[in-house]
TrEMBL record:
Species for this entry: Thioalkalivibrio nitratireducens (strain DSM 14787 / UNIQEM 213 / ALEN2)
Protein name: LPXTG cell wall surface anchor family-like protein
Listed transmembrane segments: 20-42
This protein's UniProt keywords: Membrane, Transmembrane, Transmembrane helix
Amino acid sequence: MSEQNSGTVPGRPAVSAARLSGLAVLVIVMALAFAGMGLFMFNMGRDMSTMTRAVTQMGLDVSAMADDMTFMSGRMAVMADSMVEGQAGMSQDLTGVRSGMELMARDVRSMAENMDDLARNIRGMAGNIGTMNRSMSQMNQSMGQMTGTMGRMSVDINKFTRPESLAPMSPFR
């Protein structure tokens, strides 16, 4: 066999076909591995970009939520202050109501005592009216007796002013 037919280059050792095909397979495997690694790195970069956007949006959401919580905290502080002021106002109002009720209770008690005094006075007045009625009845009886006596006296006085009427059978009677 000649050197040309054996596929050897002068000055170089002869490379066998198995070696060449092994080298070709190795290069193909390396190219596939490089392409797979490149695809993996591309997908990982895209996923990292998506995750970065998601984390950025989450940061914005947390910031907005913190602002909302701060606003809500301020509103709750205003509400708490209003409740404290309202409770103080109600306490003062209830104190006033209690004082008014105590004053009204004293006035009602005084009114009851005055009504009791009035009832006693009316009872006494009724007794006095009864006494006055009895006195007036006695006075009326006395006046009646006095009127009768005065009537008899007038007859007697008439007799003395007209002596002819004293005669027993006088037509002037």
